[in-house]
Hints:
Helices cover about 60% and strands about 0% of the residues. By secondary structure, the protein is an all-alpha fold. It is found in: Membrane.
Amino acid sequence: MRSPIVRGVVGSVVVALASLVTSVVPQSSWVASVPLRHSLPGRMVGLTFMVAGLGLMAWAWLTVGRRVMAGERLPLLRMTAYWSVPLLLAPPLFSRDAWSYAAQGALVAEGYNPYDVGPGVLSGHIVEAVDPMWMQTPAPYGPLPLAYGGLVAHLTMNPYQLMLAHRLLAVLGIVLIAWAVPRLATACRVDPAFATWLVVLNPMLITHGIGAAHNDILMLGLACSAFALALTGRWGTAAVVAGAAAAVKLPGGLVAIAIAAVMSPLAGRLHRFASLVIAGAVSVLTLVTVGALTGVGSGWLGALDVPGLVRSPFSIANLVGMAASGVLGWLGEDTAAAQALQIVRLIGMVAALGLIAWLSLRSSIHYAARAVGVALLAVVVLGPSAHDWYFLWCLPFLAVARPGRRLTTTITAVSLIFTIAAPLNSSLRGATIPILTTTALVIAIALPLLNHLRTLQPARKVPVTTT
Length: 467
């Protein structure tokens, strides 16, 4: 497999086939009867092929990156399509969120308010694959995906078909990202081919986006498009699109920082603050209007703490809070131990908001992309909840912010690790042998690839390279 295009396609096909064994599916699905799913050796075979397929995709991506940075012209968008197609009909990868999306759409179609009740009020095939943790919790998502899910659920209550409908939203998100990123890169004097490779062809975006069907990808596509529109002078339209991004997931609205910087690139802080207020007001008005027009409302704001039920190790606030709670509990301070995590999470969010405010007032148009990327990264690592795919939020903005060799290497390394280690998800909870074996496979495949990152050297100014 000399061609990285073929290598990536083979890897994607292997991942899609392995998902028939490793992914959680409704018990009524034919996939649930696949023989390998019902024994430990069979599941280990599936996990082995899954990690191997992801490794092939990561290897192909790294090979393409070297060639792009050497100035070679490659059909990057066509490669993205080739690597994505095998995943379009596969069960959701690495996460059961897509099954929750399907159930929440069914709630809307059945007349329930998804911000008041969880999927547990439903019965039948639609809730068979929903994670038990989320069965009784309200939806933490904005009105756009819920209204869309409700419309599709009026046509079918088949959970697989509803999942595919939400995967189409992820495809739309990647299309928007593919449209916006080269334009943002050109405006920031970064090689658009390099940015397209680093973002659009990134196997982390393809597998966590299309494979897992996360609605974060639509949020990200709208946010990138809002920034690109602002660069053309259509600030009002850009602010409306930013509001639509927030109507998917609230962090998408942070792109208003970049819109404000474009509105007043040479102005002082007072004018910058006024621009931010205007862009933010239009975005918030759009968000509220979307909720009203869809009939879903804005009750999701009260459910934003739902993801925080998961104590993710990717959040610094969680790590510090859990450590403080453990120490206080060991010292016998049970009351303080019970409150420590919440207090540290609050401090983390205050710190993130402070950083966002500072970035909003100090960033010029030259650093607008980096400001948004850092702001989104702060929300991830300082917020109460963080999953591996959340790091995609900052990827496009940091990729076009004139990244040097160090930042490029860091982004590439994180992408490789989060791609290959993706099977180590909650579906393996408590399964010691699969966890240890999969971890060994991930290390064995990731280390040789990470060893080659030293050769990466980003090309900054090659605006004529086609994608």
